[in-house]
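Lay summary

Proteins are chains of building blocks that fold into shapes. Our project writes down both the chain and a compact code for its shape. Here are two examples, one after the other.
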Amino acid sequence: MFQPSSSRFLLRFWVPGLIVAVLGLLGSYALWRQQQNSAESVAQMRFEQKSNLFAQSMQRRLQSYMDVLSGLQGLLKLNPQLQRRDFERLASSMELENRHPGAIGVSFTRYVPGTDKDSFLSRTRAEPSTDGRSSKDFQIHPDESRNEYFVLEYVWPRRGNEPIEGLEIHSQPSNLAALLRARDSRSMVVSAPFELRQVSEHRMGVVMRLPVFTGEGTEAKDVRFLGTVDIAIRLSALVDAVRGEGHWDNLVLNMTDMGELGADGGLVAPRTPGTLFDEPDLDSSDIRMHKDVIFGGRLWRLNFEHATPLLSPIEKGLPALVAAAGVLVTSLLTALVMMMGLRRAQAVDNAALAASALEVSEERFRTLFSQAAVGVVQIDSRTGEIARANKKFSEMLGYTEAELENMCLQDCAHPDDAAASMQELRRMAAGEIAEMRMEMRYLHRDGHVVWVDLTAAPITLSSGETHHNVAVILDITQRKNMEEALRTNEEGLRSILNRLPIGIALIKDGAFDFSNERYAQICGYDTQEISSLDAWWATLVVDPQERELYRTRWVDACNEARESGGYIRAQECTITRKGGHLRSLEMAGVVLGENYLVTLVDISQRKAVEERARYLAYYDPLTQLPNRRLLLDRLQQALAMSARHQSYGAVLMLDLDNFKSLNETQGHDMGDRLLGVVAQRLRSCVHVDDTVARHGGDEFVVVLRSMGESEQAAAAGAEEVAQKILNVMREPFELNGELHHTTLSIGITLFHGQRESADELLKRGDLAMYRAKAEGRNALRFFDPEMQAVVEARVALEADMRAGIAQGQFELAYQPQMALGSIVGAEVLMRWLHPEKGPISPVQFIPLAEESGLIHRLGEWVLRTACERLAAWAADPVLSELTLSVNVSAQQFHQAGFVPQVLAALASTGADARRLRLELTESLLLEDIDDTVKKMVRLKSYGVGFSLDDFGTGYSSLSYLKRLPLDELKIDQGFVRDVLTDPNDAAIARTIVALGTSLGLQVTAEGVETEAQRQFLERNHCYAWQGYLLSPPLPLKEFEALVMGRASADLMV
């Protein structure tokens, strides 16, 4: 045990204790100072928090006033001529005193040009308020002559604000400056502080103004400044309102208006600050600060002081408590150090133990060298030979430790890496580098490559000499193989990404890290030309407003993606790629931490298709005119406008005359060209606000608006426009170098308000147009209610006809045909027996069937029924000799499938085609005579016969008769009726008989009613006839009975 027996020991005993004591006291003092500063920081932080809450509350109050102004602004935009009672009703509903403390009134300051002053005063004085008070004494004050006035027209509440009603703002320079600033900037501004006229104390206040413009969103020339909506704020009341929210807490406030802010954020024309609100300063307060509130283009400075302490007694006493604790700890440490001195002697005894421990440590080092998990090599720095290598390095290269000790390290290096590693060793030996580290390749004993991470450094002795280097070698072959595989995969992935049909870009820290080829194709730039996302927006979105809009949407989508799974929802934008071409893109992506993977899809083609589809939905592609869908929308607008303005309008229904003939004779291409030129001429005849639309086929509709306030004026105006159209259409059209003439038929109907629907107006126009066609075409006619009744009857008859076809109400009658005294056949006639209306004349329903297209179904039914009857008669020796004549309309004959239809009826029923005769009218020959002949020849080849009905009443020519494969001519009953009394009819009948005989055709007379008529025809060699002289048209059973009876009588004779 060590015994302290000298003064030297005592010195060593006390000095460490004194040092610890001094250092401990200094540390205690530092802790006391740090705690004192911390307490002051807490007080300052609490003061700042209260000040911030106060400033934020005031900002919210000011924003609530702005919301009031926005509501009034919206109302005035919708109704610029808003009356006083409406303004006061809305203002009173806002409950300013309860909801917006500090606001003493809202008002509207109207901009009045000097020339409009008198009309403004007259209108204003005539407007009553909500409480019934008159405004007849309204005056502009001060009343001075000016080029323009800014008059406080409406104010709420009126009571208490009478002094400012009618105030001309030029009398308050600061208020005028704020108003002009609001008008020029088109944004809300706050005036400089001034004394309010409508209060008697605490009069300091400001006015917030929000400009009102009408016509926004249209061309700049249509935008008009209406005035400003204002709200007067009493600043003392505003402060009291904020105080009422609990943000006061003994704060002493001084508010100062620093002035107006410019566009760069600096003060414009700084002036002496104006006091907004002031309370007495506290000389005893040592904490002060200020907050700036920016609102309405002005800077308000809020200076705060605190009237009471911000720290509790415990917080104030904490520094002293910390200092006392520090002194106590110092005392304890001093005692501890002195006790440790007593034990120092024990350290001498432990020195011997340390030497023994050193030997153990060296042995552990040798063991560590040999058994380390990495290769460790000791190299002779002069020869480069391996002096010593551990087991791991030996296993790494496949040599024994003994074999390695006779080798140079460079002997194991790959030939391609040996020179580089040798160069680094020389640099280290020369002292250029303290150590070397490199990745290189060694060759295993069996020849394969081993990748290593080599770190070498010199071993410096205490004498400063260096004889050996030590190298730590880590086998990284597996990592290199993985890196190579990863590189291969990455190259494959890049190849795949470059072949994707969408653009892909990886953005790291706002810069492009990768992009594929499609990205460059879409944008026209690669990531070398545009390296950051900010540069991408600036280059590809030229318009600043669009750029800011797109950028904001993108940032919002990215923020939303971070919170909802990482997928950035698609955003559409339009970019200007290199070369100036516009492209529509769909941007989407994935958030990867702070980075983004962005995908770009070029949707330009899809957008173009959608735009074309939208266009085709509302416009006719041939004429570029509005189609029926857009026409109905425009017509609804015209009806609403007519009701709103109590004016008349007109609808013109136009139809080209003989357009079908042009289509069929010169082709549909020529018809399409004519429709396009007609559309151009129609547009030139009407006002730009009126509508010209294609209604379908060769029909057009013109909608005329605002034709006058009387029916007579509207009718005259509509007739003038229609006549102008007729005159323009009479001018020839040049189509493919040839002049073509066409005309229009126009139907006109007037409308007033919304009494009739759009469909009803089009129906009336259609009726009037058909009347114009019926009365000679190339004319205009106005709608007549009687016409509608006729059409409604026709519509009802058409509906009955459709039902009759479905219910089998039609039947056939047979009128016998005689030749040389015997019944040789019959003409098949259609009859309609309505269950309620009884028999309906063919004169009524046949023309309607042709117009409606029902003639095709009826004609096919008649044809099939006649074939069935011929097939049924085939087994009877008398009836099988009869021929049935079936009337065929021109529409039915000219349909594409008529010939197959006839052949199918014959084939399916088994009827003899030689007993079927088709009666054609001369009107059929007007359309495509070549096609007519072709069809007749084909049917003739199957045995079907043909008869030309009502010959002599139509347009037949001898050349047509020569070409047509006819079997029979039929003399119209109109000629037969008067052959005995009218020499002309007798001559015509003889001529037809002679003509038919000369052409080898059978001639049959229709409508023979007397024996004298039959004898006349027989004397002129016409031996075939039909008519009431023999029999009227008969039902099937009666006809068969008649034939059988005549046949029996002939046998008896």
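And here is the second example, written the same way.
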Amino acid sequence: MEAGNPSSVNEEQAAAQIFRKIRPSCIALSQLTITPVSNCGSSQLLDALKQLDLEIHDAIDSQAGLITIPTNLADYVFVPIAELLKKPSITDSELEYTLAIINELIEHCWALPGRMSGILFRQLLPLITFLIGGPPNKVEIENHSDETLENGVLCIKNLLIGAQNQGNGFLENILKEVKMMASLGHCVTVLLGCCLQCSKLEVKLQSLQSLGQLFQGIQDGEVISLMLPGVVSTFTKLVKLRPHYKVITEMFNVLSVVMVYTFDDFDLDARLDTLQELQQLKDVEPLKEGSLDEEFKVIIPENPSGKMHRTTAWLKVTLYQVRRALEIILKPVPNWLEHPEFRDAVFHIDISILRNCLASCSLLIPTVLKSMASLYTYDHSVEKSMTTTLAYSRNVSTLVEHLRTSLDESMADIGFSLGSPDSEKSSTLIGNIEFFLRCLISFQAVDKFMTRNIIEKLHSELTFVVQRTNSADSRRKHLVSGNEGEAYSTEIALVTSDYLDGALDHELKHTNVFAGVLEVSVVDSLASLLKVVASIPGVQLDISEYTPPSNFGKNINSVIDQSILLWIMDTAVNSAKERDSEFRMTESEGLDEFLSYSTNGPPADSELVARRQNIFTSLEVASDILEVNATGDINSIGSVMSSVVSLRTIGHACEVLGEEFRPELIDYLYPVIDRLASSNDVIRDEAQFATLKIASTLYGGSVKSLVYDNRDYLLDALSLRMTGDSLTPRLPIILIILIRIGGADLLQQLGDVITAIFTLLDSYYTYTSLSEGLFLVLSEVVDQIYKSYFCNFDFDKLARDSNEDNVLFHTPWGMNSMEEAIDFAQQKADVLGDGGEGEDDDLDERVKGDKILEISRDSDSDDEVQSVSSQHPEIPEDSEKWTSPMHDKTYGLVVDILEYAERLAKNQSSNLTIMALKLINRIIPLIASQRSRFLPVASSQWDFAASFLLTFNDPRIISLALKILRSLIDFGSTFFASKFTQLFNDLENSSFYTGLINRERDIFNKRRQLKQQMAKVIVKNRTSTSINWEEGMFIGISSFLQFCLLKLGRFIPMDVAAKAIGISIVYDSDRDDYGYFDDLADYMKLKC
């Protein structure tokens, strides 16, 4: 026995097993169909069909699909089916299972190689088509369910697959038969109806796949051209229904086959009717304007036999109809384009038309190119695939002409598109232009005229759109706050809040250059287009020739015009840098070699020279624009846009030039730093970007190093702008930002600038806003001193160490320990020599008397300085030990700031007064860090602060004055005991404070009594949102008096202490908060 026989035996056994399984069902069905009585609609017939279908399906599945149905068994099963189909009628349910059985027979028997005869195919194809579609003259697909249609379409699909499996041109030969034409037409109509009318996705997909197989089998353009109108019409309706993207994907696969076979250039021998010589003009008839004949220039040679259907006249009529249909079919649908398989199908039909039908379908090429451009928006590799595929096409010159025409038409529409509110439409048009241009670049079909035309068109249209928007924006009315001082202070706080820690935000995102004019998507599309323009060979030369000189006018329209051109230049140069990493010239040797090119050198050298020249030109334009905008309306659309473009240009230029930009930095750094202080957050963010790029390129990413290394230039630039007409409200903001970024290192260099600030304060103290801004600068200087010198400094310890006297207990000669007494005795012996005992007693009495007098009298500042000196005889006046963390020079600077704050505090502006008092309170701890210099300065400050309590009624000012006095006592301790006593007496004699204290004391007493009475009563929401200024002043005074009693203790006279406790006890009754006078506090508490 041969080796192959066991397999044959197994197949026979499996076939026999299938026969035994389905035989009963076949007999049962035969009994119902062969009988002359019609059983149509009976449940027995339907059940028999279901049973037979189920058993065939189960039998095949049981063998995992590895067996086939023998031909004789298929014929046996088909006998009752044939008898059933002879009946005059059949229900839809019966037809559903009948077609399912036929499909099983086709798929597992007749579709196999060698199993199908031509007769069988010719019988089954029209039969199945008739069963699901009805007669040719009256197609009625809607009468069947989706399941029935699905089984019928599967039969047709598997029948076509089976015909192809037979090989040797079996399917092609049958479909070419004339007698099959009617059946083919009917089948195409039915399949088109199924894909259009059925709601089930699988039916639509199977119908389209069957159509594709059918057209692939026909392979005859003449035959398919007859079916083209119906196919295109149905597909147009199908697209309008917006079905699932998979349906449209299959539809494009079918349509590409139809288009290629129908309009194949080689098959039609189509050629374009071009002018070969002038003599041909004699035969040209004049055309009416707008005539469609102007577009149609294709000629198909006549067929001598006269049997060809596809003639020139046919082509002309057909193409106009197909073009209208393709404009609908190929219209981009974003939801569909998101799927790669859909884009592949669109690309396939587009490239098929361009490759095979470029001449005959010349009217369709613009539509096809737009379709290809829509794919390019999602996948830029489409352009490369297209140009690579068509690079060696015989009609590539025709394609280039179409691309140029499409580019010109799109460029002509860009003005209307940019002015349209539909951003998606604008982005689509710009994307089309980019695609057309990239294709022309790949085909090396871009000339200098085309490049200049694109640049000029973009420049003019963008300028017009921005100028129009800026003009409309400038006519809007803006409300201006009436309190300019407060608005200015708020502006400074908002602007400088970006630099609180002295660092720039590295996570900022670039803003839209054309904010308020164009959407981000449109701007991104324009930038992408300009990058493609920058890839054109020789474009840098074209840009340099197009760029006019930078001496433009100072009106906003001229600024906008130049800024648009600047943006085009910057985008082109920056994109060139991205493509050419070797463009950055970081070595002088490379630069010298680069500049030593000859006129006969390669074009690449001249292109690089033009790039470099364009960079420096763009820097000059950017600087001029920023200079003009420095004095204009910074919040107008045109000003913001031009400033952002200029700053971005400077940053990009630094990145491209690298170290070569360092010598140029001195010309462009201050304009960038100046915009860090802009009140417009968009400009401010862009200035931060530019600063970070410069720092990253030249200073290792350190903005602090950038500022410090260029401090001389920056400070000189600031000094020049602190006089005359150059003085602007933004100057203090710039100083604050520089101080925050530069930190303590920069403070040492600010001597001249601070001197200039003092001069300005002397000259412009009546200008409240400017004075406030300058005071904020001085306040920032103080803040930086705190951060730099006092970061970990313990001011509480300094205050404790300043308490040189024991305020709770009396000590001999004001000493705290026996060691101090011994030291004092030794000093006394050194000073007095061998004086007698009487002299020692006199000296002790003088020292003691000085201490008593110092507590009780109100001496002037000079006397108190002498008194302090007398209290510390161990420290000679001519020797000063430096204890402050600050340098001597910095300490002097702080004292100077204090003096100017004191001078300008009593100003007509309450805001300025408050700022000065706050600054003074901040400075007191700093000057207290050097004890030997503190007390003389603090003595005058006491009288200064006390004067505000006696001359001002503003609660805010009174509160700040009390804070200053409290700080002085905190660090000066008993030095201010006599001054406090005098101040208390002055306040006691003031009717304002007397009335205030009496009123508030009564209120507090009544409130305490009421609280006791309502201890068990629940009261909801007793909180008031209003500010009680009098209560706040009373609390401030009480807290101040309490602090002084605790800090000065026994150095306060008893009568003064009693009166002070009488005021503060109603606010704070805790005896521990009164220190030396705790017993007195208990007594006053009982008295109240």
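What can we say about the second shape? The chain has 47 helices and two strands.
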